[in-house]
Specification:
The longest helix has about 35 residues. α1 crosses α3 and α2 packs parallel to α3. The protein is an alpha+beta fold. Helix content is about 25%, strand content about 35%.
């Protein structure tokens, strides 16, 4: 009857609600132990750890909805927001671990670091919106279109072979003068921009290099970090190529890594289903964060320094408050593996990329998806907001392209063609002048505004000015050939190199 059908529907909705509230353990061994306690099969054919945990949550929700009481003492029967130190799991371990004093000091330091930055950002945004009120909508739209005209000027300014095997990752430093690439040949390489000349090889990993990052603080000895499938993170000096530290602790391959905006800390995501937070100065792991049911692949930090975002291969993203250590938002929406994330400079938008060929824009104020971009015809391997003002975002894909999107209307502005195989990552310089991409075709490419001739002429003028200053200060130290005016000529390997 209709009433019976309505009751069943209400019951199903109640079970789904309870399933979302149930706090299940992340350890696969604990999940199996709970199944045995309830007299249910611990393993089903073709079932992985994530599916097994979801089955347990569904079972516990159904038991709770039916009024069963034999699990009332378990942590699984308590809503996640009520889990406390008094509740214990099956093995008698605490649901959380009390951290050392260094963690407390770190959280206090991050609070003091992030609050002034948040205050300055909000003040700037308030001033911007006050100025926009005086303009009509047509004027604002026209101004926005004009601000994106430069995106059509991006062309390939250089390309280099990044290694003997596929280039898996890339990054560009704060002032856009150097890039770093990581290859499956176990070597990371630092390159001069825009000349595309290799300056340093970073050798030390024993497996594929899977993550690279530049320290945002200039002049830091440990200026480059790399992550690898050998389960380690290493810190390097970009000028000398010296290994400054080896950070060990992960039990499976390290994926993407990212520096905290302060440059004092470093985050790493791993296939061991955790992400770690490292102190760059002491070279110690401050804490290991669990919470994901599948392998953690991507990580990024909010520009204010207060939040971190991690994405896993079940398509779930989590937002973490670094000042408290709490998971403040679970982002569900991607139907396949989540592979990338990037905070917008405006502070309240977050972009994520996935194997489902889409890029999702999240509004952190409303805690929901703002827009879904059908970005590529293959998986979207990474996404990156332009760091200065966030006017555009760049996506890379296994369809061999890099695409530039309007961050206001989420419309495609420019597609960058050139790679001959899957593009693995994209990075954008602080001023938006340069875009770097890496690919399975073993190359990395440099994309820039304007024509190559213009860039070369500017580069020549800069080099000649530097050489002239050197000649005026120490004439006898100039050992290179000079032109008729006494200015030092550029060496051939300093000029931009093209494919």
């Amino acid at each position: 009857t209709q009433s019976t059908w309505g009751e069943k529907l209400v019951k199903q909705m109640e079970v789904k609600r309870r399933e979302r509230e149930v706090a299940a353990p992340t350890s696969d061994a604990e999940v199996k132990a709970k199944f045995r306690e309830l007299g249910e099969p611990a393993i089903l054919f073709g079932e992985g750890p994530y599916e097994r945990r979801q089955r347990l949550k569904r079972l516990m929700a159904e038991l709770e909805a039916s009024g069963a009481s034999n699990f009332s003492s378990s942590v699984l029967a308590i809503p996640a927001n009520q889990v406390s130190q008094a509740t214990a799991d099956l093995n008698g371990k605490r649901f959380f671990t009390e951290g050392p004093l260094s963690v407390s000091q770190m959280r206090l330091w991050i609070s003091m670091f992030s609050i002034p930055r948040t205050e300055a950002r909000l003040k700037e945004q308030k001033q911007y919106y006050e100025n926009q009120k005086a303009k009509t909508r047509d004027q604002r739209d026209e101004e926005h279109r004009n601000s994106l005209q430069f995106l059509n000027e991006y062309t390939c300014h250089g390309s280099q072979v990044a290694g003997e095997r596929p280039a898996h990752c890339c990054a560009i430093n704060h002032d856009g003068t150097k890039a770093v690439t990581g290859s499956w040949d176990m070597v990371a390489r630092v390159w001069k921009v825009p000349q595309c000349v290799m300056t340093t090889s970073l050798r030390g990993h024993h497996d594929r290099v899977t993550g690279t990052a530049f320290n945002p603080t200039p002049g830091t000895p440990a200026s480059v970090a790399t992550g690898s499938a050998d389960s380690t993170v290493r810190l390097w000096n970009e000028d000398s190529g010296e290994e400054m530290a080896m950070l060990g602790g992960h039990t499976a391959r390290v994926c993407r890594i990212a520096f905290h905006p302060s440059g004092k800390y470093l985050g790493s995501a791993s296939f061991d289903r955790t992400w770690r937070f490292w102190d760059v100065d002491t070279k110690q792991c401050l804490y290991e964060q669990e919470g994901h049911a599948r392998e953690v692949y991507a990580i990024d930090f909010h520009g204010d320094g207060s939040l971190a975002c991690t994405m896993d291969l079940s398509g779930i993203g989590r937002l973490w408050d670094l000042r408290t250590g709490r998971s403040v938002l679970v982002m569900e929406g991607h139907v396949k593996q989540a592979l990338g994330c990037s905070f917008s400079p405006n502070g309240y938008h977050l972009a994520t990329s996935s194997d489902d060929n889409t890029c999702r824009i999240w509004d952190l104020r409303k805690k929901t998806t703002l827009y879904v971009i059908a970005a590529h015809s293959n998986l979207v391997s990474s996404v990156r907001y332009e760091p200065h003002n966030g006017n555009f975002l760049a996506t890379s894909s296994y369809d061999q392209t890099v695409k530039l999107w309007d961050s206001k209307n989420f419309e495609l502005v420019k597609t960058l063609y050139g790679h001959q195989s899957r593009v693995t990552q994209v990075a954008v310089s602080q001023d938006g002048q340069w875009i770097v991409s890496s690919s399975f075709d073993r190359t990395w490419k440099l994309w820039g505004r304007g024509s190559i001739t213009t860039v070369n002429e500017d580069l020549l003028l800069q080099e000649k000015a530097k050489s002239q200053n050197a000649v005026n200060v120490t004439p006898s130290s100039n050992t290179n050939s000079n032109d008729a005016n006494g200015t030092q000529k550029m060496e051939e390997d300093e000029l931009p190199w093209m494919e």
